[in-house]
Specification:
Length: about 210
């Protein structure tokens, strides 16, 4: 079974869903969002899940949604901003076409002001986004094969940059058939390896647009 064409990660509000739809149209594949998968499975919004069942339960559901999507989906996949906090999810992302959409926290604060659909950011300002950027960006960069800046670009322009960046990785990369899915043994080995590394190292093959 083949992996997704691209897996988009990044801070909340960085444009993963918007760019993901533009990218899927650009390369002629389908789009899938794991936050939407969780909502469809539970019949609840993300905000309601946080309020009634807590973040821990949401992260469990998110982990399951990501695992299913990575196994089933061959198009463009967008993950929630906190999905990379889970070690098993990080293991499952290893070796895939992971794309980090880089965004400035100050711009995100303006964009997300008044947004009540993101539980961890409700009522939060730039300070909260700065903290998320500090803790999560090293994980995003470590997992990403390519890193694409979004500032000053339209979703279509970002999508074009993603296509170019994936294509620059070599023959066969950036085509819609994607990469092979990892075996369960490989996932386990990756999890064990993570215990001996810090969170701020970067992959040797990451390209930046």
């Amino acid at each position: 079974m083949n992996a997704p064409y691209a897996v988009l990660i990044g801070l909340p509000g960085s444009g993963k869903s918007t760019v993901g739809r533009a990218l899927s149209a650009r390369v002629g594949v389908s789009f899938r969002d794991t936050d939407e998968d969780v909502e469809q499975t539970t019949g609840r919004s993300i905000a309601d899940l946080f309020a009634w069942e807590g973040e821990r339960r949401f992260r469990e559901l998110e982990r399951e949604a990501v695992a299913a999507a990575l196994a089933e989906h061959r198009g463009v996949l967008a993950l929630g901003g906190g999905a990379v906090l889970d070690p098993l999810t990080r293991a499952r992302l290893a070796g895939r076409n992971v794309v980090h959409l880089r965004a400035d926290p100050a711009q995100l604060a303006d964009r997300l002001r008044g947004d009540t659909t993101r539980p961890l950011l409700t009522g939060a300002g730039q300070g909260r986004l700065n903290e998320l950027a500090r803790t999560r960006t090293p994980l995003y960069e470590r997992l990403a094969r390519v890193s694409v800046a979004t500032a000053g670009r339209t979703p279509d322009a970002v999508a074009d940059a993603v296509v170019r960046s994936l294509g620059s990785l070599g023959p066969g990369v950036g085509r819609a058939q994607g990469l092979g899915v990892q075996t369960r043994a490989a996932v386990g080995a990756h999890v064990q390896g993570e215990q001996h590394r810090g969170h701020d190292d970067r992959g040797d093959h990451m390209a930046q647009e």
